[in-house]
User: Fold this.
Amino acid sequence: MKKVLVILLLAVVGFYLADVFIGIGFGNDHFVKSDEIKPVKDIYLQQTVENLKVSNAVTSIVVNFRGFDTLGEVTVLFLSVTALGSILYRKRHHAGDRSVLFSASSIVTAGSKLLFPPILLLGAYVFIHGHLSPGGGFQGGVIIATGFLLMLLAYENYTVSHNALSIVESFAGITFAVIGLMGFMNGGTFLQNFLPVGTLNDLFSGGIIPIIYIAVGFKVAAELTGVIYTVLNEKGDQKNG
Amino acid sequence: MDNTYYDLLTYVVYGSAILVMLIGLYAVLVKKSLLKIVIGLSIVDSGLNLLIVSLGYLKNGTAPIFSKGFFELAADKPMVDPLLQALVLTAIVIGFGVTAVALSLVIRLWRHHHTLYIDEIKNLKW
Assistant:
């Protein structure tokens, strides 16, 4: 009975959602263009090429036009990681005290030792080239965290230092905030560019955008590794909670 | 590309994105296991992200990246909306944070009650 009701409710919700979106249409440009009024997309794309000299328009929006939003996003990520750590807090925390159903075979351990450096390299490549190619700080950070996840799954006594993680994390966060505040020193606004922008499609281009994205990459990598480490060290059946 | 192709694509793209959202909502509303509820929440996230990204697509559009290949091969094509992609990037990260905190709460409930089924957790009833 309950399932029928839920399906009916969802059918109504889905019908009206689909009605609205199919009315909008897929791939249509609805904006009536004129000389005075331009869609915000065109302004972003124009400014990205002409002023910022950044190839990837998504990066320039995330870090520059909506950079304050990204600072808030990084703060939300930090807050959720802190909440996870404090909810799962335990007084006694032994190293290597991990919930393992069965230990990894020798193929997995040998292979992960081989794969770990290339994964880190790929992650670093993705966030260093965040302003030139698809990718960026968040994606690169996630790739690096998967490398640590592989090592943690393969080796039962592999540990990551919580102090090192928090140092990397706070340093990256401070870098983001300080670069943002340095925009004020040149008489500008928060997160305003103060470095030379270079030429388009050059590795050293875009002013402060690559620096901020590299900081975001380190921060996301440290935070996600911390999440994985905290959750993996959680033993299911302990008597005193 | 002719128009009927895009008309068909409208139904396929938006329909599948909305279907993914509804599957997630169904899991949240009907399932009894807390783990499945959290999985349902993240499925709703994925469907919503698909919907927002597909909203920014333009006919014959290319990726919003001014690479060398773009200037050589596709300079006359319109670019899809990068703003929605940036918003979805934010939404994915926030979705990760939501999932992480929800899973940690589930682990905490497991520690106290040793069950994940909300019917068996008596403290929830009043």
User: Anything to note?
Assistant: The mean pLDDT of chain B is 89. Chain B is about 70% helix and 0% strand.
